[in-house]
From TrEMBL:
<feature type="active site" description="Acyl-thioester intermediate">
    <location>
        <position position="175"/>
    </location>
</feature>
<dbReference type="InterPro" id="IPR020605">
    <property type="entry name" value="Octanoyltransferase_CS"/>
</dbReference>
<dbReference type="Pfam" id="PF21948">
    <property type="entry name" value="LplA-B_cat"/>
</dbReference>
<keyword id="KW-0012">Acyltransferase</keyword>
<keyword id="KW-0436">Ligase</keyword>
<feature type="site" description="Lowers pKa of active site Cys">
    <location>
        <position position="141"/>
    </location>
</feature>
<dbReference type="GO" id="GO:0033819">
    <property type="term" value="F:lipoyl(octanoyl) transferase activity"/>
</dbReference>
<protein>
    <recommendedName>
        <fullName>Octanoyltransferase</fullName>
        <ecNumber>2.3.1.181</ecNumber>
    </recommendedName>
</protein>
<comment type="pathway">
    <text>Protein modification; protein lipoylation via endogenous pathway; protein N(6)-(lipoyl)lysine from octanoyl-[acyl-carrier-protein]: step 1/2.</text>
</comment>
<keyword id="KW-0963">Cytoplasm</keyword>
<comment type="function">
    <text>Catalyzes the transfer of endogenously produced octanoic acid from octanoyl-acyl-carrier-protein onto the lipoyl domains of lipoate-dependent enzymes. Lipoyl-ACP can also act as a substrate although octanoyl-ACP is likely to be the physiological substrate.</text>
</comment>
<feature type="binding site">
    <location>
        <begin position="69"/>
        <end position="76"/>
    </location>
    <ligand>
        <name>substrate</name>
    </ligand>
</feature>
<dbReference type="GO" id="GO:0005737">
    <property type="term" value="C:cytoplasm"/>
</dbReference>
<comment type="similarity">
    <text>Belongs to the LipB family.</text>
</comment>
<dbReference type="GO" id="GO:0009249">
    <property type="term" value="P:protein lipoylation"/>
</dbReference>
<dbReference type="InterPro" id="IPR000544">
    <property type="entry name" value="Octanoyltransferase"/>
</dbReference>
<feature type="binding site">
    <location>
        <begin position="144"/>
        <end position="146"/>
    </location>
    <ligand>
        <name>substrate</name>
    </ligand>
</feature>
Length: 216
């Protein structure tokens, strides 16, 4: 069954979108279609299910939402692509670890397509990283992952920093890592259209979750 991709209204408030994907997951039947929701959120900090408030350093008036995904704290805002994948893992014959790897590979492939060099995984730290464009010794984070699995169905997903105000990341320990540098495609020298980045991610995720193999 082919997954359906749709764009949500932009910018999208976080709470209604979270509730909608949670409701869809709770109500879906064995023949319900998998869906990929692409969006750009209004500014918000989200804390995962086990998220520690100590990683929120200064909110600066940005709303904070405690949600049910995995992971610690992150920021969503204008200029960032968010892709929520509502997936029947059992029907796709994917284990959670394979699924996380699939999402990371889709991000790496998308970044490569647009000319961002050196995108990679970092052992023990989910997400996608790139060499620090300012020459720092440590890798910088450009994409975050956080999922929730309920009764074999996954929701939440990934975010890629495309061209955004990165200052709000200074108000948190991104993903629970003190001093982790966060960058976007623009700071790596790549200007890209958010819709085109979203289309690239969906094009890479859809074949795998539909059982057709991974697009390069």
């Amino acid at each position: 069954m082919q997954a359906v991709t749709k764009w949500l209204d932009r910018p999208a408030d976080y709470l209604p979108v979270w509730r909608a994907m949670r409701d869809y997951t709770e109500e879906r039947a064995s023949d319900s279609e998998d869906q990929i929701w692409l969006c750009e959120h209004s500014p918000v900090y989200t804390l995962g299910q086990a998220g520690l408030e100590t990683h929120l350093l200064k909110a600066n008036g940005i709303p904070v939402v405690h949600c049910d995904r995995g992971g610690q704290i992150t920021y969503h805002g204008p200029g960032q692509l968010v892709a929520y994948v509502l997936l029947d893992l059992r029907r796709a014959r994917l284990y959670v670890r394979e699924y996380v790897s699939l999402l990371e590979e889709a991000v790496i492939g998308t970044l490569r397509e647009f000319g961002v060099r050196g995108a990679c995984r970092k052992p023990g730290a989910p997400g996608v990283y790139v060499p620090d464009p300012q020459g720092g010794a440590e890798l910088a984070k450009i994409a975050a992952l956080g999922i929730k699995v309920r009764n074999g169905h996954a929701y939440h997903g990934l975010s890629i920093n495309v061209d955004m105000d990165l200052a709000p990341f200074l108000g948190i320990n991104p993903c629970g890592y003190e001093g982790l540098r966060t960058v976007d495609m623009a700071s790596c020298g790549v200007r890209a259209d958010l819709a085109e980045v979203g289309a690239s991610v969906a094009r890479r995720v859809t074949p795998r979750i539909s059982g057709e193999g991974l697009c390069g």
